[in-house]
Amino acid sequence: MTTREVHEAVKVLFGNYDYPLFNSFVFEWESDFFAISKSGYSVEVEVKVSRSDFKRDFSHKPAKHTVFTRHKELAYCKKVYDESHYPLKIEGIWHTPKSSMLHWIKPCEVLPNKFYYACPEGLIKLEEVPAYAGLIYTGPIQYQAKIVKPAPFLHKNKKCFDKILLGKYYHRNNELYNMLHYFQINADLTDEQNRQLKTIFDRIR
After folding, report:
1. What's the CATH fold of domain 3-71+110-157?
2. Going edge to edge, which strands form the sheet with 31-36?
3. I need a surface site. Which of 44, 61, 114, 164 has the fewest CB within 10 A?
4. DSSP run (H or E) holding 149
């Protein structure tokens, strides 16, 4: 199965959820799929279509998985080191000042309420799924998906995503408008096709 096919199956599975988004930065990382339930809880789905991609997820995104692993904590401290861009001369010797600061992370503020992995059936084994995640299998039949391991609640805070979602949909609307405009001026369209495009422009303007 392709990534696109898994995406579509996941979208159908969460068909009664609102504001579905693909490949968007709702959190500090890119979410393959994001949506919000009718009761206001957010869900994120990470799509995997190869074993190597699944294993690489843990080694290439350590900060992300750290916050998921520590989701039960009210907050935890992360050290941040900063190297100054302005050298300092002390007793005739140039130094590059370094400083460190403490950055407090509240998991409930930076995580979805639930997190899933989605993959073709059997690609990821149940015992390989972290305790904080659920697992979705997609089948050979188009748009077929099932939850084989329900995701636990990472937290039950209902975050307001209004500002983030408004920005996402605003920019996507503009992107669509520009793509259609480019298509219109570069394609040899019939009068009927131009009328149809004008109707679309009027709706997304």
Report:
1. Trna Endonuclease; Chain: A, domain 1 (3.40.1350)
2. 18-24, 31-36, 42-47, 114-120, 134-138, 145-149
3. 61
4. strand 145-149
Per-residue exposure over 14-27, b if at least 16 CB sit within 10 Å of its own CB, e if not: beebeebbbebebb
Count of residues for the chain?
205
The structural domains of the chain, with segments of one domain joined by +, span 3-71+110-157, 165-204
125-179 tens-digit pLDDT: 999 999 999 999 998 888 899 999 999 999 999 998 888 888 887 777 777 777 7
Is 75 within 8 Å of 104 (Cβ atoms)? yes
Angle at 132 between CA 131 and CA 138, to 5 degrees: 90
Residue 157 tokens read as 């805070």
